[in-house]
Amino acid sequence: MKTIDSIPTSKIQRASKLVTTGAKIGVNYLKYYGDKITKTEEEAKNRLNQNNAGDIYDSLKQLKGSALKVAQMLSMEKNILPQAYVEKFSLSQFSVPPLSPALVTKTFKKYFGKNPNEIFDKFNSVSVNAASIGQVHKAEKDGKRLAVKIQYPGVSDSIASDLSLVKPIAIKMFNIRGKDSDKYFKEVENKLSEETNYVLEVEQSQAIVEACKHIPNLKFPNYYPEISSDRIITMDWMDGVHLSEFTSENQETRNKLGQALWDFYMFQIHKLKKVHADPHPGNFLISPKNELIVIDFGCMKTIPDEFYIPYFELANEESLQDPVFFEKKLFELEILRKEDSPEELAFFRNIFHELLSLFTQPFNKEVFDFSDEDFFGRISELGTKYAKSTELKNMNGNRGSKHFIYINRTFFGLYNLMHDLKAKDVKINNFKSL
User: Fold this and answer.
1) Residue 172 CB: number of other CB atoms within 10 A?
2) Does residue 39 register a pLDDT over 90?
3) Lowest mean pLDDT among 45-59, 187-201, 324-338
4) What is the pLDDT of residue 330?
5) What is the pTM of this model?
6) Rounded to whole angstroms, how far apart are CA atoms 120 and 263?
């Protein structure tokens, strides 16, 4: 794969790159209007989506950082984006052009005052994995095989400006209006800032490993603060395949891995009230012994009681059957607001009752089958229904506490991973006995 010798770091450079991309999209629309003459509307629209997705992704993968991270987050919204965008943006999880060896060495000199070969006994200057915020290299020291994660230059300094560039797209896509929208973007900005703080990531990683190491069939790397820094993390090298590449047909193995993944998340959410909020396949490996390995703790979300309590009260089937209690909790979670009109109150009550009645089904079972195509098909249909709803587009989309952004992302990601594993007979409350 071709390497990158430099990354646009200034606001002007990054904005210029997106302006160039915008011009390419304009050309794609001209092609689209021409295609409509000789092709069906569906064929023309599919080609437009493929061309636009390719041009946008090509631009973002050169910018890297927050812009690419937002694409990664959007790739998990399978029911919002056209398939062409999902496929392209999914590449940002673990397949983007890496930094050149020269730029890697320059980064080490900046943060350690030494070349990598002066720190490690062996260091491969060609990365083995490149993602949105950093890339990973193989190394050895004192007989230990290590993974060294290096953050891309300028990423931490461009978060606010990157988000200002993608904000108009997000506002249109999620129908967000008014001054209250700032709280959602501030939540994303704060989390992205945390993800670029590698000292914090090492601290979080060590804490979560210590808290969760007792969970069966779960493994974590050790972390080495003494050879880590603000922009470089050194940890154990873990052998395994990405969860998305796991191909075993053994149902017992899939059930075991699914149970470990579910227990890991439920233990964090209910016992620690702090959760790994970046559940995409690139953050999980399957070991040769069929154990689940978790390798990235940059994005951790603390769950305050004022959100946790009403959120999980609404996961209870009985709560959904009590209209008064249900509405009370919607107000507590900022889904309904005092200034809402009677029409808005009724509309959003109905939407969230339909969504929660479906989405919370696993929490009202002793065991659940995450391979159930009918369950995931209904989730997909519901997502598509509301993504196309003209009535919803006419309503103010500023709905819910800011904590929904990362908690919903966590659950959508977790459900998708459980479905990818085709895990059956998962004990929902198994974490209580751990």
Assistant:
1) 10
2) no
3) 45-59
4) 96
5) 0.82
6) 36
pLDDT of residue 292: 97
Query: How is the chain split into domains, by residue range?
Result: 11-93, 239-434
> Is the pLDDT reported for residue 93 higher than 60?
no
Q: Which two tokens stand for residue 30?
A: 């001209």
Give pLDDT, residue 278: 86
Residue 109 CB contacts under 8 Å (≥ 6 apart), including other chains: 115
Pairing status of strand 292-294 against strand 218-219:
parallel
In the predicted structure, residue 198 carries a pLDDT above the cut 80 = yes
